[in-house]
Amino acid sequence: MALQNSTAQVKHYQWMLHDGSQWLNLNHDSVIETHYCQPGAQGIALFTSDYGRIFLDFDKMEIEGDQMTPYRQTSLSPDETEEYLWYFFENRRWHEYGSQGSSKKKASVTSPDIEQQYQINPEGSCTFTIGNMSYSLNFSAMTQSNLHTGMQRRVRRRPKYNSVIQKTSSLASLIQDLSLSSTVPPAGDEGVWREHKANASGVVCSVSNDDIEQTYQQNPQGQLQFTAGQFSYMLDYSGMFQVNNTLGTKRKVRRILCRNQPKSISLQGMALSSAAPPAGGYVWQFRGEEGVWTEYKTNNACGVVCSITSDDIEQSYQQNPQGQLQFTAGQFSYMLDYSGMFQVNNTLGTKRKVRRILCRNQPKSISLQGMALSSAAPPAGGYVWQFRGEEGVWTEYKTNNACGVVCSITSDDIEQSYQQNPQGQLQFTAGQFSYMLDYSGMFQVNNTLGTKRKVRRILCRNQQ
Fold first, then answer.
1. N or C: which end of the chain has fewer CB within 10 A?
2. Where is each WWE domain found (predicted)?
């Protein structure tokens, strides 16, 4: 990774290193940001032309074994802030607060609730319940403690990738009480869709049109919880309606294309005008190996040749958002369904989730110029270790897989272990899972799912 003298910001974030005398910007730092926003990533291994291999620890925010200091600088306007999410570690997985853990019970607080308390006192704590148990979350120690048993769990606070939100609601008009009595239109206007230009009651809504559009883009079949005044609501994208969780009042919702304006979601009796989507357009991804979201490309980073790109899919989607698209990847053919947001392998029947996300001025790939995300290339005549992964493609073990999976070992680490005991085994982690690599059988096993993959050791002649 190349370093440069500090300059003006062009993104809302910039990763930097202090070498003891000056702050230096890290070029092509979108890959660092991508990993930092994943709760399962403890850190990232980088290879710099100036300082060699370094490891950036996200939890401690330091460079292991080095005097250099990392820093993530943000550049936001006074009315903007980043959206942070809070996670707890349970059963080898990171769960966001508000989602179900292994007990199938949800915490009484969500990420926004915790973040609000954290902003008030970053050195303090907050208490909450899960079922009939009470817990305390210590912001300084970043741990969650069961107040009955004393059991502790790790906690992480990470920004939502590329999520910049307004500190105050950006609704063109603040939402009134959404009961029937508050939104009765004038005589003769019954059933007419209207957009209010002003709100006299001053009722504050917890979401803006941008928030709704962003969550809709992530999951067009999902739901969104929000509050307006003293009431809470559920907005259902698939049914296009909202429900008052207290009164049960149900209202239709629509998302319309406004002439000379960007797309917006209009609620009856609401004004939800949207800002134009930023440069960068939309990116299409499928949920592939080990749950990692991977962008559609003609030549996948894992070596699979695909007949379409993200741009091809977007063009097809614009023509028919409820349609389908046939394509090939490697030796297989697939069907991509826009309404269900999934893809199906036409031969094997394998089904994978698909998503369409807004790309805000960031590159569509995580390829880095002048940066190697693994240990140095093996010497001439050395050995390389690979596993047979997605679609039968042989992929080398690296600290940071080209598909975005953070692995605890490299091909060199495996070779060193193998030299010590060619009949032994090696335990390691990749993403949220742990694995066992068996040298005698030449296979790896996912310790949680039991998935078994072939492994091979090949002679590498003057190439990586």
1. C
2. 70-157, 170-255, 270-356, 371-457
